[in-house]
Amino acid sequence: MRPSIFFYWTNWGFFILLWGTSTLWAAPLWISSPFEKVDSTEHVPVFAIVPRFLIGKISENTYQIENQLLNQQAQYFENKHTTLCPYEDWNSLLSVATCSASLVSKSVLATARHCVSGRSPEELRKFCERHAFIFDWRGESELASSRIFYCNPKLDSQNQALRLSTQVDLALIYLNKEVRSVVMPELVRDLEMASDEKLFSFGHPFGMKLFVSKNGNIISDPQTPRQQMIATNLSTMRGESGGPLFLKKNDKNILAGILISNNGDFKYNEEKKCLDIINCSEKSDCLPSYFLKTDSILDILIPVRKKAKKI
Q: Which of 301, 291, 222, 223 is nearest to 263 (CA)?
């Protein structure tokens, strides 16, 4: 029996529900590579969404991020509050981001709608008041003020700093200033991708510094709504929602979509009473990582981009 896969979002997040069997009907998903640190000296057009109370001003142009490590955070999982197992490699890394976001214009971010808490105008204003957006965060504890962005205050007062899609898991965030010194990705409507096209994605797994997952491919997934989503075998984690999916064409980075559903997570270790990390780069039975196609971004990216390019 083939199961049905239902995509739905709530105020608490974006979920995938398998219905009809306990086994995923699909070929094994071979993940091509684990996460890698970002070594590029060029700025990557990715942002970390961070609660403002974790960022403190230490001088006129310098801010400090609170020393909040991943192993210090209690995670709520399967009705239990606990922490990561002590042997996990990522325990000693800073973890401050709630989600990731992709730069789609010099002053506009795209992220997953479930990353934005609230739906009413008042709730959205509070989201803007309580969050900052850190450009190309690689785990530094001190940051120049030029790398910290906020919702556009003029638009925020008119409830327009956040534009939420009513159709898909997508939100646009309008920033208070333009991003400089970054090569903008191309946004392409009706992007054609071959099955052997090499894909790569960026994000902040578990709220940590920026990582990249490389050498992914599109998965032939009969359950994927092809008109809106891309199923890939890239390894992704919670905290990476909103991060970009790229491919290279004609020596240009093309934004193919943004992450809306990760495939890695926690697993409760009954013996040790702590959480193990499920890294889908080491497993063959994970669900795909689902990315929302760029077309959905272009549908509401108005008036920043009036006409999408085709290649």
A: 291
Other beta carbons within 10 angstroms of residue 269's beta carbon come to 13
Cis peptide, bond prior to residue 303, ω within 30 of zero: yes
Cβ count within 10 A of residue 253: 17
The model's pTM is 0.81
Which domains are seen in the chain, by residue range? 31-37+185-295 (2.40.10.10), 46-174 (2.40.10)
What is the three-state SS of 192-247? Answer: CCCCCCCEEEEECHHHCCCEEEEEECECCCCCCCCCCEEEECCCCCCCCCCCEEEE
Q: What is the pLDDT of residues 218-227, one digit of tens each?
A: 887 656 655 7
Per residue in 99-133, pLDDT tens? 999 999 999 999 999 999 877 888 888 999 999 99
Buried b (16+ CB within 10 A) or exposed e, 211-229: bbbeebbbbebebbeeebb
Give the Cα separation of 253 and 202 in Å (integer).
13
Q: Contact 185/151 with Cβ under 8 angstroms?
A: no
CB 71 within 8 A of CB 84: yes
CA-based R_g, the chain, Å = 19
Which residues face 70 on adjacent strands? none
Is residue 196 exposed (0-12), middle (13-18) or buried (19+ Cβ within 10 Å)?
exposed
In this prediction, residue 15 carries a pLDDT of: 38
CA distances from 45 to 72, 160, 281 (A): 29, 22, 24
Quick: pLDDT tens for 185-207.
899 888 888 878 889 999 998 89
